[in-house]
Design goal:
5-stranded parallel β-sheet, 14 helices, 22 strands
């Protein structure tokens, strides 16, 4: 059977695959995107967007506790209709998915192959009954939730992952969340604020990807009033009355449903990569050199969750565009990744920019740390928001900013600012020259920058000068 020649095959129509298509289509019309569906990207269907929609409802309902301090009475009488919350979350989710599908219309009928792609010997790609011979292939097949062996057999429909939790027509009374990374933490707090009794399990000391011990302690205290956190592995077993009993060293509890959020695995194991001499590691990922998206000596490119980079939308979009660009031009996809930036939209928010504490602690004597608290800051008090703190890490010898961790209201904005400074290799003085308006969270950032600067080996007085000869440096009013 003959094979249709292609310049580029793109396997997967998620964020990375669609981004790759944009670049490929600028160079050649000889390409196809292979995906059996569902369409609309995983982010829009079951990840970033519906989770934030659910969180928005949960945070809005939770703010009733501050109404009296604002002179607004009757907040204690408000009720949450959990079924309606889930319905409205799906409505918004569905509209976002339709928006992605709409953007595919100009090329969908001509370039989308609605079948799974299977790789066969001699560089052949088969989709349904049709065979293709691509010169280059971008693999952007996304990922699936990891579930421990045997758990689905034991728990059946009582077990949920982030892939299916938004299909719930109502919320259970009690929920266990297994894994307190960003996904588990966001969904766990959202459920708790909507009235679910939530117990979170994670044997790791980190929460939400945060590793700085000082901020972890602060975060744990903040969350403890809403979610019961158990630092242990869970051992769930279904009971005869359709509940789940969970035991761990030191205790046990019973819940109605269980949400597993312990990570994701690439959807590439069934592609047939071995027929193209691609070997995967024990985690089911390709062995890609640092800073590369394609395997050496091949035109096989991996992007998004199918690759080795961070499982974040902006990273998947970058990787997809790069993979598509080089696949269409017969080049090696070499690149310098942007400054790491991670966020968790719980309250208080978690934001990490640049190097994290776990990567710096072994050279702690070379690191200057600037701490500052949001607890009594003017903006925080005006918002009746929970407090928080930040820690800025800089190189003692040069005052160059290396990273930052923030647990605070609206931390996302400060993190973007810090990520840009790290990307430009700025020192602390560069951000200290930025004007800061009152009352804003940036005032807290400035305090942290100054304290970090004082811990460096440089002349803090000279570097911290406010371009006005007689003006005092410490002029904050809150």
């Amino acid at each position: 059977m003959s094979a249709e020649p292609l310049d580029v095959a793109i396997i997967g129509a998620g964020t990375a695959g669609l981004s790759a298509r944009v670049e490929v289509a600028q160079v050649t019309d000889s390409y196809r995107v292979f995906d059996p569906g569902p369409y609309g990207t995983f982010c829009a269907r079951a990840a970033c967007m519906p989770s934030k929609a659910l969180l928005h409802s949960a945070h809005a309902f939770h703010r009733r506790h501050t109404f009296e301090t604002l002179g607004i009475l009757g907040g204690e009488a408000l009720e949450v209709d959990a079924a309606r919350v889930m319905e409205e979350t799906r409505k918004l989710r569905d509209s976002l998915v339709e928006g992605v599908k709409e953007s595919m219309k100009p090329w969908r009928d001509t370039h989308l192959v609605p079948h799974a792609a299977i790789l066969e010997p001699d560089g052949i790609l088969r989709a349904g009954e049709t065979r293709f011979r691509p010169l280059a292939t971008v693999i952007a097949t996304g990922s699936r939730a990891v579930v421990p062996d045997g758990w689905r057999d034991r728990l059946g429909d009582l077990l949920l992952t982030s892939d299916d939790i938004f299909e719930l027509r109502d919320l259970p009374r009690r929920m266990a969340v297994i894994g307190l990374g960003p996904v588990g933490l966001e969904l766990g707090q959202a459920l708790a604020r909507l009235g679910v009794e939530v117990t979170g399990f994670d044997p790791e000391a980190t929460i939400g990807g945060l590793t700085d011990p000082d901020l972890l302690e602060r975060l744990s205290r903040s969350l403890s009033d809403e979610v019961t956190i158990v630092n242990a592995a869970a051992d769930p077993v279904a009971t005869e009355d359709d509940a789940i009993r969970i035991k761990w060293d030191g205790g046990e509890t019973e819940v109605d449903r269980i949400l597993v959020a312990i990570g994701r695995r690439p959807n590439i194991g069934a592609l047939g990569l071995e027929t193209w001499n691609v070997v995967l590691d024990q985690d089911g990922r390709p062995d890609l050199p640092d800073g590369r998206l394609n395997l050496p000596g091949t035109r096989i490119y991996f992007a998004g969750d199918a690759g080795t980079g961070p499982a974040l939308l902006h990273e998947a979009s970058d990787e997809g565009r790069l993979a598509g660009y080089f696949a269409a031009r017969d080049g090696d996809a070499r690149f310098d990744r942007r400054t790491p930036l991670r966020m968790v939209f719980c309250e208080p928010q978690i934001a990490l920019a640049g190097a994290t504490w776990d990567t710096l602690k072994d050279r702690a004597d070379e690191i200057a740390i600037g701490e500052a608290s949001f607890d009594e800051a003017g903006r925080t008090r005006l918002q009746r928001a929970p407090g928080g703190g930040l820690r800025i890490y800089a190189e003692k010898a040069t005052a160059r900013i290396l990273g930052a961790a923030i647990v605070a209201p609206e931390a996302e904005h400060l993190a973007h600012l810090l990520a840009l400074a790290i990307e430009r290799q700025d020192d602390l003085s560069a951000l200290l020259r930025m004007p800061v308006y009152h009352p804003t969270h940036e005032e807290v950032l400035r305090r942290g920058l100054r304290r970090a600067l004082k811990a460096t080996a440089l002349d803090a007085t000279e570097l911290d000068a406010i371009r006005c000869a007689d003006a005092p440096v410490e002029c904050d009013t809150d």
